[in-house]
Amino acid sequence: MRIRRNLKFNLLLLFIIFIILFMIKHLNFNSKNYTTTNNIVIHYIDVGQGDASLIQVNNMNMLIDSGPKESRKKILNYLNSLNIEKLDYVIATHPHEDHIGNMAKIIRNFKVDKFYAPKVENSSSSFEKMVDALKDKKLKINVLNKNTTSLYLGNNTRITVFSPTKNSYDNLNNYSPVMKIQYGNTSFLFTGDAEKEIENEILLDSNNNIKSDVIKIGHHGSSTSSTKTFIEKVNPSIAIISVGNDNKFNHPNKSVIDRLKKNNTKIYQTNKEHTIILSSNGHKIIKNNKTPLAY
C-alpha cells in the first residue's frame, strides 16, 4: 500500500512539474527583461548626460541612441544583463557624441539586423568610428525621415515617424527623428534632441497625431525644446528626461519642468531615478521599481 501511495505521489508531483514548465514556456517570461508576449517594455537607460532607450516587444529589440563615451561600460553591462544577443533595429537620432558615443562598440558587440539614421554626416571621431563599424559588419545606413514606413516591431505595434521633413537643417539637433510607438491603446513619443523648429513643423501638419501617453523630452529638458503648444498637443501623462547630474548646461530647464507640471504630467529623470523602465499590456502603463541587475 505504501509503495502504491508513493507512486501516486510521484506521479502527481511529475504532473505538477509538467504544468509549471508548460506555463513558463508559453508565457515566455524572462525575469531579466521584464517582458512577456503581451507586453511592451521600454528602458530609458541612465547614461548620464546623453540618450539611450531600449524598446522590447514581440521578442524584438530596438535601441535608440547609445549615450556618450563615458557611459560605455554602463550601457554595455546593462544590455548584457538583459541577455540581449540581437538588436533588430538600432537608431542613431543625430551625430552628436552624447547620442552616438558608443554606437561603434554596440555595432561590433551585438548582432544588428538593421541600422537607421537621418541623412547627415559629421567629422567627429564617434561618427567616423560608427561608420567604420557599420562597414566592417556590412551594414548599410537606412535613411530615417518622415517618409520612413519600414520600421516594424510585430503584432499590435505601430511606428509613425514625424520628422525630419527637410533635407538639411542648420542645427544638427533638428535632424532628430520625432517618432511615436503605439502599442495597443498606449503610446510613447521619442524626440531625440529635436528643437522648437521641428516641433513647430510637426504642429503645422494637421495630419500628425502626436498625442502620446509618454514623452521622452527633447534635448534633455533644454529650453530649446518642449514648447507650450507642443506639450499641450502631446498631452502626456508621463515625461522622461534623460539627463546627467550637475551638467554644465543646467538641464533640465526650470521652464520645461514648470510647463510639464502645469500639464499635470508625472516627471521622471534618469539622474534621480537612474534607469527608468515602463511596461504596457496595451491598456495600462506601469513603472517597474527595480532595474534588472545592478550595472
Features:
30% helix, 295 residues, Competence_DNA_uptake, membrane, transmembrane, alpha/beta, single chain
What does the model show?
This is MBL fold metallo-hydrolase. Keywords: Hydrolase, Membrane, Transmembrane, Transmembrane helix. It comes from Clostridium taeniosporum. GO terms for molecular function: hydrolase activity. This protein is an alpha/beta fold. The chain has two domains: 1-30; 37-288, 4-Layer Sandwich (Metallo-beta-lactamase, Chain A), CATH 3.60.15. Helix content is 30%, strand content 22%. It has helices at 2-27, 72-81, 97-100, 103-109, 125-136, 196-204, 228-234, 254-262, 270-273, and strands spanning 40-44, 53-57, 60-64, 86-91, 111-117, 141-143, 157-161, 179-183, 186-190, 214-216, 238-241, 266-269, 276-280, 285-288.
- Report the strand count: 14
The strands making up the biggest β-sheet line up spatially as: 6-5-4-3-2-1-13-14
Task: Count up the domains.
Answer: 2
CATH architecture of the largest domain: 4-Layer Sandwich
Q: What is the class of the largest domain in the CATH system?
A: Alpha Beta
Task: Find the CATH topology of the largest domain.
Answer: Metallo-beta-lactamase, Chain A
Strand content: 15-25%
Q: Please report the number of helical segments.
A: 9
CATH superfamily of the largest domain: Ribonuclease Z/Hydroxyacylglutathione hydrolase-like
Main structural class:
alpha/beta
Rg (CA only): 21 Å
Encode the helix/strand succession as letters. HEEEHEHHEHEEEEHEHEHEHEE
Biggest pleated sheet: 8 strands, mixed
Unreliable residue runs: 20-36
Cα separation of the termini? 56 Å
What form results from the Cα inertia axes?
globular
